[in-house]
Amino acid sequence: MSPPATTPPRRADARRNVAAILDAAQECLIRDPEATVAQIAQAAGVGRVTLYGHFATRTELVDAVFERVTAQADTMLAATDVSGDPMAALARLVTANWQVVHRFRAVLAAAERELPPARVRGHNDRHLRRLTALLARGRAEGAFRTDLPEQWLATTAYTLMHAAAHECAAGRLDPVGAGVALTATLTAAFAPPPPPGAPGGHGT
Amino acid sequence: MSPPATTPPRRADARRNVAAILDAAQECLIRDPEATVAQIAQAAGVGRVTLYGHFATRTELVDAVFERVTAQADTMLAATDVSGDPMAALARLVTANWQVVHRFRAVLAAAERELPPARVRGHNDRHLRRLTALLARGRAEGAFRTDLPEQWLATTAYTLMHAAAHECAAGRLDPVGAGVALTATLTAAFAPPPPPGAPGGHGT
DNA sequence: CCGATCTCAAACAGCCGTGTTCGAGTTATG
DNA sequence: CATAACTCGAACACGGCTGTTTGAGATCGG
Fold this sequence. Notes:
2 copies of one chain form a homodimer.
Chain A: H1 12-31, H2 37-43, H3 48-54, H4 58-78, H5 86-114, H6 117-140, H7 150-169, H8 175-190
Helix pairs in contact in A: 1-2, 1-4, 1-5, 4-5, 5-6, 5-7, 5-8, 6-7, 7-8
The first copy, chain A, binds a DNA duplex (30 and 30 nucleotides) through α1 and α3.
């Protein structure tokens, strides 16, 4: 039989190595979703064979990292309060969610690339649902616009989070400014459009 | 020596094949940015060797397709009128630009993946500049918000165009609805935020 | 301190993609 | 129609990645 991949290793150093591998894999996949098993092993300070001793397959490793990351993400999001004024709740949720995207974007990209779609959906939908729930409530209360599909609003939010993360990674935006820009943009984009007879300049 | 890759082929059928290859490559790369040379050759109804006779390298082929696509994109965008009321001009530019993204997103992804970054920047910046120019003018005229970096507004616009294209490709949005949603969202997101003492319900 | 557990380098097999060579066959074109 | 231009399938070399085997050695843990 192969060494225990599902059963936790018996010896302390083995368990330590598994942890090191997961750490290294997460870090490597964040830098490059196509990172090689060899690269990950080296980053973990471990032989390639040892890695295969703990994770039979590259896919299995990615899956483990994905599991780990979603757990961390859940922790970061669980604390967010989505009650009260929808617009304020949106700002809170977006701020928290953006941090998650900022950190784990690349890992999710790797997961989406080589894990069965259903696997990713399951974990992802949970986060999405928190947003759509807030969206639905806010629309019912008249705090958010209802002239566009809910689906599109959710897409807008997530897309802009990814964009902010990307800009941040490229050094064109600092994390603080990104948070500000995100909430300002989404607040404006989600507010109900003023009726035709609004005050102010109207053009011709 | 190698067959004429830079010099156009002398014979009619050869020129026809080059065209077929470019067509097939464009189509294949749109479906999958990692499409194989073999797949492209087959789609073009041509032997792999023949393809290599006209394009010494996969990179060279991608470059040619990229060249072609940017030319088409330029044509589609050149006609857009960006004068007049900034908000209306934005709507026009976004609608036109979105069509481009909708069609060629995947090819650009392929190009970004395996062409020297400078190559892509050059052609891309031209389109970007049209938007930023409009942005600058609109901000100066008070039609667009100035409380966020211009860079961020541009990113927002392009990101949402890509998102709309993606939603469209996934069948969750029809092209018409996408255009509407895009302009509605960007119009709201780019408008100057109302000063603190605005009318309407304010909560608590 | 001894044995079970774990590590590891080297080397191998298999797959897949790129790019090249060869030799024979086809087709345009003057 | 004859020749230069072009096409094509098969086969090869090359490199990279995955996953496996082997056998010797290090290390934990009772």
